[in-house]
Amino acid sequence: MTVIHQNDLIDSITDALQFIACYHPKDFIDSLYQAYQKEENPVARDALAQILINSRLAAIGKRPMCQDTGMVTVFVEIGMGVHFDSQMTLDEMINEGVRRAYTSSADILRKSVVSDPDGARKNTGDNTPAVIHHHMVSGDKLRIRIAAKGGGSEAKARLAMLNPSDNIVDWVLEQLPKMGAGWCPPGIIGIGIGGNPEKAMEMAKSLAMESIDIHSLKARGAKNRDEELRLELYEKINQLGIGAQGLGGLSTVLDVKVGSYPTHAANKPVGLVPNCAATRHIEFTLEGNGPADMPEINLSDWPEITRLSDDKAKRVNLDTVTESEIAEWQPGDTLLLSGKLLTGRDAAHKRLIDLLDQGKPLPVDFKDRFIYYVGPVDPMAGEVMGPAGPTTATRMDKFTPRLLTETGLRGMIGKAERGAETIKAIRDNKAIYLIAVGGAAYLISKAIKVAKILAFEDLGMEAIYEFEVKDMPVTVAVDTKGNNIHKTGPETWHKHILEAHCASCHG
């Protein structure tokens, strides 16, 4: 019998969450670097460069690679011979580890979990509770797999109850374009087939936490149906041309994981879960001899690369930029922003619209200003602001037309695509939509030189700030005429990939 002591489990959970917030798995870094080396689209290649540079900086600085430090998912395999020396239940121990990780002064992590999800949505203050899956297994060890999953990629999860004769590949290829860029591709896709709805989704979530090995699978060949699906989906998803950050390119997924489970004869449940550019997961085993040791970090595992686009970028002074200057920007242009920048996201936007509805004055003048959709991590000693990457702009679509029309807002910065009505409002108001790279939060924070709260301080990370930035890298996504890179980029690269594929087949 193995005795697992309470503090050993709690400390292991805490250490693991602090670790994965700052360090990518080596297999992910290696695969992302391969994608960077082969990428032909300059805009997508620059996005990949930013993610790689950000990852190395986060590892050096021991700071979160993404501002969304995730909601915790834990898979626990409990050996039948394990005994717990604890005054707490297993779930209580795990949640205590989560609480300590997200409230530690050693490395501040953003707390994103809210209770009463359809009501007050009050932040729990410590990122608890985790979502915990328990499995009893043979043996006398406790195996823990833990992930911190960001909201942007979770929002793109999919579940379908297909008919037995339906084609899974067709369904997946239909979903990927609909998922857009909010999950910050390229990443890993987990696909669970069979069981019942919750089993399919649990499998998909678990599979998305596995190591990248698609290239070794291609080398040896498929041995079963699941592996056949992996290879087919990997090739066909990348042929869609969605690319890094949805900008169009050769790499949309780094791996596809497929698992299956027996199901009812009348059903074919399929769960799809993407893992984003901030892939954060780790596995450890407790055997009764103390807390788990975290992997040793070797900075040589990270490639040292530099962005080549800065030399071609247009430098923009946000404090003096004119309407005519903005009108010259084209989708795909790289900009380096300097000057004063407002921030705000879901909760702040809701309050602004409520004030407009009530005919009350807004706390901030948005006339000719730019707003950055961000919920940053609190700063630590020596920092102006913690990691501050973009959140998914699509969630602000319901508010954007009115803000553009009624406040004179000039520009927006976020990640992922905008909806048709929002693009029309951007065009009609001669506004602009820019994207920052999801997965480059720590790199972006280095551009923030001054930060102060202007309104809604009670919203915490969702308050309206004013940042003063210096050379903050962004890409033009929707120009003043309504041209949209998230539409034209993937279309262009899908065509390019298919033409190249056909040429190689005929060659």
Q: What's the shape?
A: globular
**Structural class label:** alpha/beta
Q: Please provide the count of β strands.
A: 19
User: pLDDT average, as an integer?
Assistant: 95
Helix content: 25-40%
The largest β sheet comes out as: 5 strands, mixed, barrel
Work out the radius of gyration: 23 Å
Distance between the termini: 63 Å
In spatial order, strands of the major sheet run 14-15-16-17-19
Number of domains: 2
In terms of DSSP E residues, the strand content is 15-25%
How many helices?
A: 15
Ranges with pLDDT <50 over ≥5 residues? Answer: none
Domain Fe-S hydro-lyase tartrate dehydratase beta-type catalytic: 288-488
Protein name: Fumarate hydratase class I
Keywords: 4Fe-4S, Iron, Iron-sulfur, Lyase, Metal-binding
GO biological process, one term: generation of precursor metabolites and energy
Question: Key features?
Answer:
alpha/beta; fumarase; 2 domains; 34% helix; globular
Write the layout of secondary structure elements.
Blueprint: E1 2-5, H1 6-22, H2 26-38, H3 42-61, E2 71-79, E3 82-85, H4 90-103, E4 114-115, E5 122-123, E6 131-137, E7 142-149, H5 151-154, E8 158-162, H6 168-179, E9 187-194, H7 197-207, H8 214-220, H9 225-238, E10 253-261, E11 268-275, E12 281-286, E13 314-317, H10 323-327, E14 334-343, H11 346-357, E15 370-372, H12 400-407, E16 411-414, H13 420-428, E17 432-435, H14 441-445, E18 448-455, E19 464-478, H15 485-506
Helix pairs in contact: 1-4, 2-3, 6-9, 12-13
